[in-house]
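Appendix B. Extra example for self-study. Work through it before the problem class; the solution is given directly after the inputs so you can check yourself.
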Amino acid sequence: MTAGFLDLLVLDDGASIRGYDCRDVVHVKEVSGERGSPGGYLVQLGRLGSRRGVVCREVLGSMALSAREIRPVPEALRERMTGEKPWAVAITGRGILLLY
Amino acid sequence: MVSPSGISPLDEVRKDFLREASIEAEAAGQEKAQEECGPARSLLVFSLGPEWCAVDLAHVRKVLRPGRIARVSGAAPEVLGLMNHMGEVLCVLDLRWILSSGKEAVQAATEGKLIVVMQHGGKEAGFLVDEVRDVKELPASSVLPVLDSVDPSRARLFEGTVTFSGQFVGLLSPSACLNP
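Solution. Structure tokens for the complete assembly:
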């Protein structure tokens, strides 16, 4: 981890761009598509907390995020989400990133 | 009997009747406004397709042109996404979808439209609308109840009815629109 920065693994889930703390990543595995559906990647997380897997379409790479790029998740969005909710939103040169 | 346009004569009569009633109500409101100097309300009137709506300006923070909206997976269908507006992250909602209770398709195109940012009770969101028509000032007493003809599932989204340019316009409840 770079001082004052959060190192993120950046994923494209097909709808939005997600960022995960690199320190939490256990491994990344390529998964092949079935019955004509495109393949993707399975990202295993849980080095820092509870183990879970995330399937994404593409791994876009990693980036260092500074605290000033981070914003809270708007309440109007938080209330309208099901499943895993992001803990923050980041405004970066790549656009808006959801941090999980 | 249904005309080629699909509108029955009864619907046409009702539509004409409502138009006449709205013109009369508007005229009565203007007379009332001249007679009394009660508290006034400033309303932002905007359109969503053929429908016009209004919202109290006290709850409107700003009106923006849509920028790049980032989609969010796992969000409810009315969530169009998140937009960066001068370093602030704004949640953009599809007002037409909300008012149709999901009967209308989510609007994919934002070109030429506007986002009305509403605020109430510490919550804020941007609502995609087609066009902003006017800002209207009227006495608070001229706000009529929600029309009986409004579908009950939609009625909770309105706090009343006002008349504008010869038609009844639903006055939105910011609290109901902001809370899912």
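Self-check: Residues 5-99 of chain A form one domain. If your reasoning did not lead you there, revisit section 3.
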